[in-house]
């Protein structure tokens, strides 16, 4: 099978692009150039002068299956990813049952093989059933394809458990990925502790609830030599301790979500669940520190934390609704519109943080436009404006505060291993 994507542009450096066609053969990129003879190809796609990038890589999504298929399924969640230009996603293990044994992990992978339209790498938990102190059998789970280990959704509450898990992960050469949240510092909080929480009369979540556990883990990572990856960094103090740890030579990497880069607590208009996420939207200085952290390399990549929920449960107040917002279908457009169009980030940086780096830090053979690499590609209409419309979402979740926002960079096509996984049509 020979496929041609004609009439596209690829990023060269900064915001510069050059005309390019992509020749795909046997699922791989065979050549990147211009003037390929159309008649020799089995199928030809017209990129219409728009931007072709490597397929985006999202190291943090919730696909909710098995256990919560009313919120999302592997089929819907990966279609949503493809519609967002993502070709590889890493799925969190807060499922029911939690894939904490090889047998349970295999069942998740069987469903992924059957239903997924993009590459899915499944995380395994750090401890049995996420909440216990009992460690999983890492080796058995790795044999079954565990991507890395995380209890995302909750923090690991005791240092001893984290230490032993890190030691084991270091031995197995796998990353330990952490949602950091010290529950003894939670005090029932549902949004960032600040002026807006007071105005809305809601209990606040302190910044140290996150940052103090990161500080603990960084020292444990130093002691064990593990690759420690911090999920959804949200506070300026977290950025500072990660920056210091990198300077000290500790093997730490970190991600930030689009919503934490764009929104702050003061943007929350009312006590409504679509604005509730964990970690919460923080203050202005926190947002600035996150942007600075990306720019100076303290934060390595952007990840969505795509967290779909049922419409009814998310339409309640802050105290009543679950944490999380959907992100797969809006991430690139939001980042492109708010940072590239405004000149704060270059296109090259965004591609780096959304494709190249997430693959690189986890040692994945994807994320770049390279001859011989899997033909995982996305085509974005960076010149056209559209409106974020939840009725167009392929995700089962509609819960996002970005509905109605005007954005550029809609995804026209997404290819996974040379096959079309999303096509916008006319
Ligand atoms: Zn989390």
TrEMBL record:
Residues 49-238 form the Dihydroorotase catalytic domain. This is Dihydroorotase. GO terms for biological process: 'de novo' UMP biosynthetic process; purine nucleobase catabolic process. Its cofactor is Zn(2+). It comes from Candidatus Enterococcus wittei. CDD domains: DHOase_IIa (cd01317). Catalyzes the reversible cyclization of carbamoyl aspartate to dihydroorotate. Substrate binds at residues 62-64, 94, 278, 309, 323-324. Zn(2+) 2 binds at residues 152, 179, 232. It comes from the Bacteria. The keyword Protein transport does not apply. One of its GO terms (cellular component) is cytoplasm. Belongs to the metallo-dependent hydrolases superfamily. DHOase family. Class I DHOase subfamily. One of its GO terms (molecular function) is dihydroorotase activity. Pfam families: DHOase (PF12890). It catalyses: (S)-dihydroorotate + H2O = N-carbamoyl-L-aspartate + H(+). Pathway: Pyrimidine metabolism; UMP biosynthesis via de novo pathway; (S)-dihydroorotate from bicarbonate: step 3/3. It is an enzyme of class 3 (hydrolase).
């Amino acid at each position: 099978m020979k496929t041609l994507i004609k009439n596209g542009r690829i990023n060269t450096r900064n915001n510069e692009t050059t005309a390019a066609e992509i020749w795909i053969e046997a699922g791989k990129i065979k050549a990147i150039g211009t003037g390929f003879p159309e008649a020799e190809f089995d199928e030809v796609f017209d990129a219409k002068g728009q931007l072709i990038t490597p397929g985006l890589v999202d190291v943090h999504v919730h696909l909710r299956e098995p256990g919560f298929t009313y919120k999302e399924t592997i089929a819907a969640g990966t279609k949503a990813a493809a519609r967002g230009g993502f070709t590889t996603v890493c799925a969190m293990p807060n499922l029911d049952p939690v894939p904490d044994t090889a047998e349970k992990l295999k069942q998740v992978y069987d469903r992924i093989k059957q239903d997924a339209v993009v590459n899915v790498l499944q995380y395994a938990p750090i401890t049995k059933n996420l909440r216990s102190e009992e460690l999983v059998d890492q080796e058995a789970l790795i044999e079954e394809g565990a991507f890395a280990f995380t209890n995302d959704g909750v923090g690991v509450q005791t240092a001893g458990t984290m230490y032993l898990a890190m030691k084991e992960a270091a031995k197995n050469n796998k990353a330990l990925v952490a949602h950091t949240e010290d529950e003894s510092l939670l005090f029932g909080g549902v949004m960032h502790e600040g002026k807006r929480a007071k105005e809305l009369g809601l209990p606040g979540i302190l910044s140290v609830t996150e940052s103090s556990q990161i500080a603990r883990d960084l020292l444990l990572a130093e002691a064990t030599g593990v690759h420690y990856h911090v999920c959804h960094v949200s506070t300026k103090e977290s950025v500072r301790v990660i920056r210091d740890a990198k300077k000290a030579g500790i093997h730490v990497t970190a991600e930030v979500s689009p919503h934490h880069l764009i929104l702050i607590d003061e943007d929350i208009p009312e006590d409504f669940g679509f604005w509730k996420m964990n970690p919460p939207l923080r203050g202005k200085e926190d947002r600035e520190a996150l942007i600075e952290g990306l720019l100076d390399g303290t934060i390595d990549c952007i990840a969505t934390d795509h967290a779909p929920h049922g419409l009814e449960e998310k339409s309640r107040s802050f105290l009543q609704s679950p944490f999380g917002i959907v992100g797969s279908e809006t991430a690139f457009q939001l980042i492109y519109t708010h940072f590239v169009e405004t000149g704060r980030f270059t296109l090259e940086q965004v591609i780096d943080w959304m494709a190249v780096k997430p693959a690189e830090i986890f040692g994945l053979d994807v994320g770049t436009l390279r001859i011989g690499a899997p033909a995982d590609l996305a085509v974005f209409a960076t010149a056209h404006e559209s409106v974020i419309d939840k009725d167009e979402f392929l995700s089962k979740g509609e819960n996002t505060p970005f509905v109605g926002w005007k954005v550029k960079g809609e995804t026209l096509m997404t290819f996974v291993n040379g096959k079309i996984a999303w096509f916008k049509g006319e």
